[in-house]
Amino acid sequence: MSRGEAYGYAVARIRAMESLLFDAARYQRLLDADGIVGAIKIIGETNYARGLTDDETAEQYDSALEAELLATFKEFQAFVPDRALIDIFRLPYDFHNVKALLKGWFNAKTGGKRRWEILTPLGSISIDDLTVRIESEEYSLLPYGLSQILPACVSAWEQTRDIVEVERLLDEGLFSAMITLASSLGEPRVLGWVRARIDSENIRNLLRLRRFGFDAAAAAPFLHGGGTIDPMTLLSLLPEPYDAWGRMLAYFDIGAAVSSVQDDGSFDNLIVSLEKALDDYCQSRLANARYSQNSPENVLAYLWGKEMEVKNIRTILVSKGTESDRDEVRRLMRHGY
Predict the structure, then answer these.
(1) Which of 125, 124, 151, 123 is nearest to 137 (CA)?
(2) Smallest Cα–Cα separation from 152: which of 166, 172, 131?
(3) CATH class name, domain 1-81+296-337
(4) How much is the pLDDT for 122?
(5) Burial environment of residue 309 by CB neighbours within 10 A (0 to 12, 13 to 18, 19 or more)
């Protein structure tokens, strides 16, 4: 079977799975549900039911959402020709686990506690293997550049006790690994999408750095290479009011997403609205894939759509517990697949 034929089969499988995704009507039923119990019952009618139990706590429904996303990753691995397409999505969870394990290891050395409960099976590296490697400081067999990144993280911690620097090194390694994976596929549009994700993360970081009063020199290390926008261009936004950012980025695809968000004077509202706009921007970059019957981008589109579905369901379930305004919750929901 040629690569084109293999992706033709993969896309056909994806089309058959589209009916499993939440549509507007099902989201509306969730929004209208009577509290968390009613919402859980609706979720129990879907594929998410396999992760549900009679315990309707936040921890329990988080596990159900995680279990469904993991099942999707594993199903895709069975028919997608290039596993790198799935690993692009699983990499952030690998690096999340590395952060959690390193922080736990550092805490244990100073008499603190580890937090095993925040580890996730959604990564591509076994949690047990990752734990053993970090605990024994045997990094040589770890993939994605971790064999070089982890010694640098440990050294930074021992010298400065600066956990922010450790996180920065890991974030830098994550995006470098994503670019390497995407480049290995030889698909320019896949690489372009990963670069768009890096742009999105850089803009999120820039807004947070601006809030905490970082100047350009202090902020520069926290902007990652590999995106379509040069970090120096992004740093020029730092002293400017947010409402000018969209105009200054007008020559880039992401500029429209930034312009769509208005600053009402509340940082919390601004960052939440911007994160939604950037997630929707990443989804829009994959919209044309659905017109192709053998494009690898269809894999990205479905998996990103699934991640946004999980995010939307979690938003609704949390809102049921906090009795949030329904219209406000609807405003925060990401565009679906």
Answers:
(1) 151
(2) 166
(3) mainly alpha
(4) 97
(5) buried
Alpha-carbon gap, residue 41 to 39, rounded angstroms:
5
CB 275 within 8 A of CB 332: no
Write out the two tokens for 292: 């192709």
Helical (H) or strand (E) element with 284: helix 267-284
Place of tokens 């769509």: 260
Q: Which of 318, 92, 35 is nearest to 224 (CA)?
A: 92
Pull the structure tokens for residue 103: 């922080």
Candidates 125, 17, 142, 141; CA nearest to 78 is 17
**Structure tokens, 4:** 């084109």
Could you give the CA distance from residue 244 to residue 158 in angstroms, rounded to a whole number?
A: 41
Largest Cα separation within the chain, whole Å, is: 57
Report helix, strand or coil for 337: coil
- pTM listed for this prediction: 0.94
Closest-CA residue to 114 (of 137, 139, 135)? 135
3-state secondary structure string, 176-218? HHHHHHHHHCCCHHHHHHHHHHHHHHHHHHHHHHHHCCCCHHH
The predicted pLDDT at position 225 comes to 92
With vertex at residue 317, the alpha carbon angle to CA 273 and CA 119, rounded to the nearest 5 degrees, is 85
Cα–Cα dist 41/29, whole Å: 11
Structure tokens at 164: 């922010």
Q: What whole-number distance in Å separates Cα of residue 222 and Cα of residue 169?
A: 9
Q: Splitting the chain (337 residues) into consecutive groups of 10 residues, what average pLDDT does each group show? A: 77 93 92 88 86 60 90 96 96 97 89 86 96 92 95 94 94 97 95 97 96 93 95 94 95 96 91 96 92 91 96 92 84 87
* Structure token pair of residue 54: 């009679």
Distances 222 to 1, 68, 192, 207, 257 between C-alpha atoms, Å: 44, 33, 21, 12, 21
- Contact call for residues 193 and 285 (beta carbons, < 8 A): yes
